[in-house]
Amino acid sequence: MTKTEADKPTRASELFSSPTTDVILLSLDGVAFSAHRVFLMEASPVFREMLSTLQPGAEHESRSLPSLDLSEIEEIVDGLLRWIYPCPNKPATDTWELLESYFEAAWKYRVDVAITALQERLNVFVHRAKSKSTPVRAYGLCLWLRDTCGLDAPDLLTLARKSIIRTDTNLLQMDAVTLKRLTAMDVVNLTNAQAAYRRRVDRILSFPKSWTFSYRCSQHTSKEDRMPPWWRAFRSHLLTKAKNRTAQDPLFSSSFLASWTELVTCLDCRGQLTCAESEFRRMDKELLVLWETGTGGDLVCWEIKKAV
Ligand SMILES: [Zn+2]
């Protein structure tokens, strides 16, 4: 194929420009990387194959070296080469975009050293999830790695799944980039598990039928409505707290109970709240079991249902 002026490399990579090299890698955006066949062939069976069939005629004009046209941009080619070469400064993968692009390239060329480094990086991303979209992207990436690359990371997949289900992350409101590796079935499955988890939280935090108070306030609690006046607002606050927490901290901390006790001005009603502490501890314990095991009745949230 004859190269036009526009196809020529616009510049050479600074880091990969040694005069001892014997092949040129051309990035999609026209940057020439001078490389050593022996490094490429050792690190990647795909490069080995490509270089073994490289036509001697396809030469890079300025250096008279054979060249390979790659479909990755400069940043990605540079990153791959840093992993392949014994460079001290390995690529920084601090965004999802980079992490995913590197993963795709590393997998395409089967550069094991890069794949291993990226898996470690993904692990850090999932464990330090800062936004609600992180677990969703991680989940999709783990599924892609498992189904396309055969690189199964069940612990990471489960962790990402738990993080999505335990919070009120609304998958249907996430952007297309975040959801790009999830199928409609994945989204349905996650949304259903999330709803089941939420129903279970709702049930644990419901007003117990057997709940009797020694300090039942006759002024504020009628026979028809057995619930104390503070209960509804209290519960709604707890539900929000339960759905938004990212760590299993106790819902009914002593500071939380103290602040609510202060809000209840009627002394009898306040007595009800104080007497209910053992019930609150029971609720916290049940929530903890749900958080850890994901088991809510028949539903096992943490299990990934296989498509039939
Ligand atoms: Zn009262």
From TrEMBL:
Q: Which residues form a coiled coil?
A: none
Q: Where is the BTB domain?
A: 21-85
- InterPro entries documented for this protein: BTB/POZ_dom, SKP1/BTB/POZ_sf
Output the superkingdom of the source species: Eukaryota
Alphabetized Pfam families for the sequence: BTB
UniProt-listed CDD domains: BTB_POZ_ZBTB_KLHL-like
Which Gene3D superfamilies has this protein been placed in? Potassium Channel Kv1.1, Chain A
What the entry lists under SUPFAM superfamilies is as follows:
POZ domain
- According to UniProt, the name of this protein is BTB domain-containing protein
* Source organism per UniProt: Botryobasidium botryosum (strain FD-172 SS1)
